[in-house]
Amino acid sequence: MSLLNVDDLRVDVDDKTILNGLSLTVDAGEVHAVMGPNGSGKSTFANVLAGRPGYDVTGGAITMDGTDITGLAPEERSHRGLFLAFQYPVEIPGVSNMEFLKAAVDAHARMRGEDETSAPEFIGRARDAASRLELDVDFLKRGVNDGFSGGEKKRNEILQMLLLEPRLAVLDETDSGLDIDALQVVAAGINAFRNDGNAVVLVTHYQRLLNHVVPDRVHVLTGGRIVRSGDRSLALELEDKGYGWLDD
Amino acid sequence: MPDQNELHDLVGSEHAAAGSEYSAGFVTDIETDTLPPGLDEGVVRVISAKKDEPEWMTEWRLDAFRRWREMHTPRWAHVQFPDIDFQAISYFSAPKGDAPKSLDEVDPALLRTYEKLGVPLHERARLAGVREDAPEVAVDAVFDSISVATTFKDRLAEAGVVFCSISEAIREHPELVRKYLGSVVPKPDNFYAALNSAVFSDGSFVYVPKHTRCPMELSTIFRINAENTGQFERTLIIADEGAYVSYLEGCTAPMRDENQLHAAVVELVALDDAEIKYSTVQNWYPGDDQGNGGIYNFVTKRGACLGERSKISWTQVETGSAITWKYPSVVLRGADSVGEFYSVALTRNFQQADTGTKMTHIGPRTKSTIISKGISAGRSQNSYRGRVRMNPGAKGARNYTQCDSLLIGENCGAHTFPYIESKLPSAMIEHEATTSKVSDEQLFLCQQRGIDPEKAVSMIVNGFCRDVFRTLPMEFAMEAAQLLEVSLEGAVG
Mapping DSSP to helix (H, G, I), strand (E, B) and coil, where does residue B232 land? Predict the structure, then answer.
C-alpha cells in the first residue's frame, strides 16, 4: 500500500479548473519533487493535499495509507500524519512559537491517546530542534512568525516538521527566498527528517534544493497534470533547457 | 471545515451551549429580607437604618438622592437599551437573620454558593484551582446587598491593614470614610454615581497605613442572587504614604430573563509614594443568544493619585454583562504620579460594551499608559472610549495609548472614540490603534498543525490579550485566560 496515492485529481478555484487529472503515487522512504512553471498548479496541489478551504475538488481522490482523506478537515489530515510547510507562513502575534508548537504536538499526542509532553521535556526538544536549524533560543519565545525574516519563517516551518514527525511532509516552495547558507541548513533539516517510514513531496520551481535533498523521483506539472516523470536527471535537464522544452 | 462565514454563524448560534457554559448561572435558594420595588426618601432612610448608620451618613445619602432626582440617564454611550424603570427595582435584598459575627456563623447555603464559585470562605483553603503554594488571598464576599463574610481580618489587622465591609467602616472608621467617601467620585458626578450614593448597600473598605505593604492580595467577590434587585456596591480603598495594595474584584450572577442593574462606585486614593493595583475579572451574566436578560453594568470607577510619585493601576477583564458602561479612570494630581489602564473586553451574541478610561493630568511629569484590547464576536458591539486630558500645570506629562480591536465573524462591530484635550503644547501624547480579524490563514495554519479550530481561536485571542494578562497576578491571569476560553466556546466548530 502506498503512503500517498493521488488519483485523477480535479480541482477548481473560483470556477476555474486548476488541476486537471493529476495522479501521483508516493511510497514510504521516498522523496518526490514536483516541479513546474509559475501557474502550473503546484501550490494548489500542495494546499489541496492539506485540505485548505477555497479549493473545490470536482473529481478524483487522495488516499493516505489506503484511507480516502479527500473530504477530511485539515486537522484530521494532520492527525493522520500529513504536514504542509507553507510557502507564505502567516503571523500570529502574541502567541509564542513555543506555545504554538506545544499546542500542536499535544494535539497529536491526544489523538494517539498519549499523555501530553511535560513542559520542561518539550522545551528541551524544541531547543534541540531549533539549534539544529541554527535558530537562536529567543526565537522560540517570539510570536509565531511575528517579525521573522523570510528565511526565519521557512526554517520555522522545518522546525515544526521536525517536532511533529509527520508521515508525509509536503514542502511548498520552501527553498524560495533562502540564501545559500539558509538553503543548506533547511536541506540538512529535511535530510535529518527522512527515514524509511516517511515520505517528502518537494514542490519547487527550481532544482537547486535538489542538489542538497536528492529526490527519488521528479515530476513535471504543467496545465494541471503531471506530464512527465523521471529520476533526478530530469530536474537537471529542466534546469538546462527550461520548462518550454517540454512543450516541444 | 469552518471558513470565516461559518465561523460567524456558529458564534451567533452558540445558544445551546450558552446555557451550560455560564457555570455561575445558578440560583441560591435562601430566605431573604427584600424591600419592595420603588425608590423615594423613605427607602433611602430604611436602607440607612438597616445598616445602623449614623445621622451624617443618612443625610449624605438623602443629599445624593435629591440630586439624582434632578439628573438624567447619560445617552452618549454607544449602547442601546430600553429605558429603565427605576421604580420597578428593589434597592435592598439580604439573606435573613442577624449578620454573622464570624465565619462559623455564616449560613451553609452561602458558603456552598461561594464554594461553587471557586471561592471557599475559610482561611485554610486557597482559591479553587490554584496551586498549593500560591499566595493567600483575603476575601470579602458580598451577596446581593450585604457583605456576608470577610476572611483573614485578624492577620491583616496585625499589619495594621483594615479590610472590612463599607457598612462596618462607616461605623468603625467614620473619620476615614467621611474624609474620602465621595472625594474622588462626587455625588452628582453622573446619574448612576448619584443613584449609588443614595442607595449603596455594601462593598469593601480598605485602608493600608503608612509605609505598609499589604501582606496578601485582597479580593471582593460580588454575587447578585435575588430577582428584580439592583446591586449598588461601594468600594473605597485608601493607600496611605508609601503603602502598597493589590486588590481583585470578581462578579457573577444567576441567569435570569430580566435585565438586572448593577451600578457600583469604586474610589481609590493614593497618597505620596503609595501604589494601588486594582484588578477586575467581570463575569456578570451576559444574557442569552437572543439578547434576553443579563446584567446592565453601569459602573463609575476612579482613582486619585493625590500624592507625589503615587501610582494607580487598573486592569480589567470584561467578559460578562449585557451592557457594560465603565471607565476606570485616574486623576493624576501629585507630581510624578503614574496612572495605568489595561483592559480586555470580550463581547459576543448581543452584548454591548462601551468601556475605556479617562486620564486627567494635573501634576507635573505625570505619566499615563492605556492598553485596551477589544474582542467582538457574534452581533456584539464593542467600543473603546477614552479621554486623555493635559491641564496647563502638567508640565512634562506623557501619555501612551494603544487600542487594538479583534473581530471574529462579519456581524460584530468595533469602535474607537479617543478624545485628547491638551492645554499644554509640550505634553507628549501618543496614540496607536489597530483593528484585525482572526484570519482564515491563521486558522488554517493552526488546523494544519492539528489544532482544532475552537482551540485555535482561543489561542489567537489569548495571544492578542497577552500584554494585558501579563499585568494580572498569576492565578488571576490563568482564570482570565480560562474565562476567555469558556466565553469563546462554540465560537467555531
Answer: coil
**A171 pLDDT exceeds 80?**
yes
Provide, as residue numbers in chain B, all residues whose Cβ is less than 8 Å from the Cβ of A167. Answer: none
Q: At residue B485, what is the residue type? A: E
* Partners of residue B453 in chain A, C-beta under 8 Å: 75
Residues 6+ apart with CB under 8 A from B345: B316, B318, B319, B324, B353, B355, B372, B373, B374, B375, B382, B384
| Integer Cα distance of A57 and A10 in angstroms | 6
Which residue of B444, B455, B464 is in closest CB contact with A103? B455
Nearest C-alpha neighbor of B315 from the set B328, B330, B333, B331: B328
**CA-closest candidate to residue B44, choices B244, B195, B266:** B195
Q: Which residue has the cell 444567576?
A: B254
Distance of residue A241 Cα from the nearest chain B Cα, in angstroms = 36
| Complex-level ipTM | 0.95
- H helix or E strand, kind and range, residue A222: strand A217-222
Instruction: State the architecture of A4-93+166-247 in CATH terms.
Output: 3-Layer(aba) Sandwich (3.40)
Q: Tell me whether residues A95 and B448 touch, CB distance under 8 A.
A: no
Q: Give the Cα separation of A25 and A3 in Å (integer).
A: 8
Q: Which of B440, B442, B449 sits opposite A53 (nearest CB)?
A: B440
**Closest by Cα among B358, B434, B438, B359 to B403:** B434
For residue B115, name the pLDDT band (cuts at 50, 70, 90): low
- Note the pTM of the prediction, 2 decimals: 0.79
Order of all β-strands in the sheet with B217-223: B146-150, B137-143, B217-223, B244-252, B275-282, B311-318, B338-347, B367-376, B398-407, B428-437
B463–chain A Cβ distance below 8 A for any pair: yes
